[in-house]
Amino acid sequence: MSGPETETLLYLDGVSVSFDGFKALNELSLIIQAGEMRAIIGPNGAGKTTMMDVVTGKTRPDTGTIYFDGNVDLTKLDEASIAELGIGRKFQKPTVFQHHTVWDNLELALAGRRGTFAALFRREGSSERERIEELLGIIRLGELRDMEAANLSHGQKQWLEIGMLLAQEPKLLLVDEPAAGMTDAETEATADLLKEIAKEKSVVVVEHDMTFVRALGVKVTVLHEGSVLSEGTIDHVSEDPRVIEVYLGR
Ligand SMILES: Nc1ncnc2c1ncn2[C@@H]1O[C@H](COP(=O)(O)OP(=O)(O)OP(=O)(O)O)[C@@H](O)[C@H]1O
Question: For helices 154-166 and 102-114, what crossing angle results, to 10°?
Answer without folding.
Answer: 30
